[in-house]
Structure formats: structure tokens, C-alpha cells
Design a protein that fits this description.
alpha/beta, Spore Coat Polysaccharide Biosynthesis Protein SpsA, Chain A, seven-stranded mixed sheet, 8 helices, globular
């Protein structure tokens, strides 16, 4: 069964291409097949050099690179990757592969054996031991709002590891939020449609994962996006 892995790439850490190379091949070994890898370069930025991309092109046979000049946001970038994906299973995560090898394998295996159509990574208890205080607070507030206003059985929607069978990809492509809350929009659509089996899969962070500072300028636009979801 062919799988596609989509990685949005914006302002990645130094040495990111080596991280992608190592983790990609580990994932392929774990599942026993070569995976289609789609890297979406979300706007021009100095961390994504021609040398980095050339290294990956030389060492990953099933590589597709999508590039555009203007930074549009993680949700927009992943939609571009999903639209190009040819895999029967489509997964996405962050460019630094922050989640454990076992976490990625668990999501893939359930989708492969048709146990569910959409796999939503949810953070395990130890995840929050690594998360800065402000991120924990914002995450808690969002989960409270989801319980209060959207009444969904999954409130941890923002984990950066998810997967879907190809049949659910058109629903993902119907999302319109370009930044932080695109994950929530997708999960919300899944439950509203009632066409897909959705499963929460506990996932764990790798050791030594570093979180960037939260850009608080995104909070007001995302509040408006949350309000828009209430009326969808």
C-alpha cells in the first residue's frame, strides 16, 4: 500500500535536511515500503537553500518539492501537498519530525489495516512536560472552547501529526483556514460529515524537541477563524 508523507517547511532549523533524510528512511524501514515524500516550501526563507534541496533530491527517490514565494501558512502548505499526493494513505507532520517513531508507525498501521479513515494524533500526558507555559495555557483554553462550543469527542486537535485514507483527502481539501486552526477545521468537518471513522491516537514527543516562541499576533485572526467555524 503506497503512503505519502507531507512536510510543510518554513524557517526550518539548521541541518533540517539531514533530519528529514534520517527520519524519512527510518519511517520507510518501519513500514517496509518506500514512501512518497512531499515537501512544501511555504515561502522564500534563507534556511531552505538550493544545497539543502539538492541533497534531498539526490538521496530520496520518491521526492516532490512544491515551492512558492509568499508565506501562506501551515494549513495552506499542507493542502498543496495533499492535493499532489498519490498515496492510499496520506500523513503529515512537521519538518523536524518532533513525534516518536512509534507514534508515526501507530498512525500508519491503523490506516493500513482499515481500522479508521482519519487518525488524529493526540498528545499523551508526558507531552506537556516539555511545553512552555504559554503554549500549555493557550492549548487548554482552546480545548475548553472546543468542548463548550463545538461539542466534539476530540478536543486536542492541534497535534502536528495526522493521517487519513485517500477517501478523506477531498474533505481535507475543503478546509479554508491557512494557519493555526486548519487542524481544528478538518477535525470539525470530519465529525460533521459523519462519513468517516475518526480515531484519536496517543502520540509522544521525541526527546530534545525545541519549541519556538509563540507569535501572539496570530491569536486575534485565529479567534475570528474559530468564530467562523461556529457558523459553518
Amino acid at each position: 500500500m503506497i503512503a505519502t508523507l507531507v512536510l510543510p517547511c518554513y524557517n526550518p532549523p539548521q541541518g533540517w535536511e539531514q533530519v528529514v533524510y534520517t527520519n524519512y528512511h527510518t519511517f520507510c524501514e518501519d513500514i517496509g515500503e518506500e514512501v512518497e515524500l512531499i515537501i512544501v516550501v511555504d515561502g522564500e526563507n534563507p534556511g531552505v537553500t538550493g544545497a539543502c534541496l539538492a541533497f534531498l533530491e539526490q538521496n530520496i527517490r520518491q521526492l516532490i518539492i512544491i515551492r512558492y514565494k509568499e508565506n501562506r501558512g501551515k494549513g495552506y502548505a499542507i493542502r498543496q501537498g495533499v492535493a499532489k499526493a498519490t498515496g492510499d494513505i496520506i500523513m503529515y507532520t512537521d519538518i523536524d519530525f518532533p513525534y516518536s517513531e512509534d507514534s508515526m508507525y501507530s498512525i500508519y498501521e491503523g490506516l493500513k489495516h482499515d481500522e479508521y479513515d482519519v487518525a488524529i494524533g493526540v498528545k499523551n500526558a508526558s507531552y506537556y512536560d516539555h511545553v512552555p507555559f504559554m503554549r500549555r495555557m493557550i492549548s487548554g483554553i482552546l480545548r475548553f472552547f472546543i468542548r463548550l462550543f463545538l461539542s466534539m469527542p476530540i478536543t486536542d486537535t492541534q497535534c502536528g501529526l495526522k493521517g487519513m485514507r485517500r477517501t478523506a483527502a477531498p474533505l481535507f481539501l475543503q478546509t479554508t483556514i491557512d494557519r493555526y486552526l486548519f487542524d481544528l477545521e478538518f477535525v470539525h468537518k470530519c465529525f460533521k460529515s459523519k462519513k468517516f471513522r475518526v480515531k484519536a491516537i496517543p502520540v509522544a514527543l521525541n526527546e530534545n524537541v525545541h519549541f519556538r516562541k509563540m507569535n501572539f499576533r496570530i491569536l486575534l485572526p485565529e479567534l475570528f477563524n474559530f468564530i467562523k467555524l461556529l457558523f459553518q
